[in-house]
Amino acid sequence: MSEFQTSYDWLLTAIGDSLTVGVGAPVFGKGYVGRYVGFTQDIFNNQIIVNNYAVTGTTSEEILYSLKDKQVRKSIKKSKIILITAGGNDLIQAAFKFMLTSKEEPIYQALDQCKKNLAKIFKVIFKIKKNTKDSFIIRICTLYNPYFRWSKANKWVNLFNEHIKSYERMPNVKVADLYDVFKGREKELVCFDTIHPNKRGYQVIAVSLFELGFKEIE
Predict the structure, then answer these.
(1) pTM for the whole thing?
(2) Quick check: is 193 catalytic?
(3) Domain SGNH hydrolase-type esterase, which positions (predicted)?
(4) 3-state SS string for the chain
(5) pLDDT one digit per residue (tens) for the chain, 218 residues
């Protein structure tokens, strides 16, 4: 991760799970973060420095906990762009419990906890940014459903996504709807592990985020 450069550079902070890490992308390829940065640098002609604090397998609770780190908070404070993926591992862990018990209670417990964690994540970010004069944007993704043939999974993913979409009411926040762009294209966009995006999938995510625009910072 690079330290902050000249005043002419933009800083981008990414937090989240394996999607933001780029799991599933080719070994020497880029996940969605690198692709998004490439698109953005091209139109603004600004060097973008990336601090990616995402960790594979993290839940929304663990992402929230990561915001206690001084380096992460410093990066967020100075960032022009903040990217977030969260909730996928909360749902996956709950789905495994369902498979063992055939009870949906763990799904709704995970949803409730994820709601609380996301609310706190945004609260912390806005508190960090409160006294900054520079404009900034926050972009978060909905969940896509790699288990599209499983009707219950579609229902659960949509419950999580309804909540994620609600944050678009907040200033500076826009949501990339991955569920819609992946729907019907799962075989094309998900890699051999049946969970993570492949090269094409990460390109689709980057484009979806890029198409949300930059109105707040133009």
Answers:
(1) 0.94
(2) yes
(3) 14-204
(4) CCCCCCCCCEEEEEECCHHHHCCCCCCCCCCHHHHHHHHHHHHHCCCEEEEECCCCCCCHHHHHHHCCCHHHHHHHHHCCEEEECCCHHHHHHHHHHHHHHCCCHHHHHHHHHHHHHHHHHHHHHHHHHCCCCCCCEEEEECCCCCCCCCHHHHHHHHHHHHHHHHHHHCCCEEEECHHHHHCCCHHHHECCCCCCECHHHHHHHHHHHHCCCCCCCC
(5) 444 444 458 999 999 999 999 999 987 678 999 999 999 999 998 899 999 999 999 999 999 999 999 999 999 999 999 999 999 999 999 999 998 999 999 999 999 999 999 999 999 999 999 988 899 999 999 999 988 888 888 999 999 999 999 999 999 999 999 999 999 999 999 998 889 999 999 999 999 999 999 999 98
**196 an active-site residue?**
yes
- Active-site pick, 69, 112, 180, 193: 193
What number of other Cβ atoms are within 10 A of residue 150's Cβ? 13
Select which of 18, 75, 79, 208 is catalytic: 18
Which CATH number is 10-210 given?
Answer: 3.40.50.1110
Q: Are strands 137-141 and 48-52 parallel, antiparallel or unpaired?
A: unpaired
Catalytic hit among 17, 177, 196, 208: 196
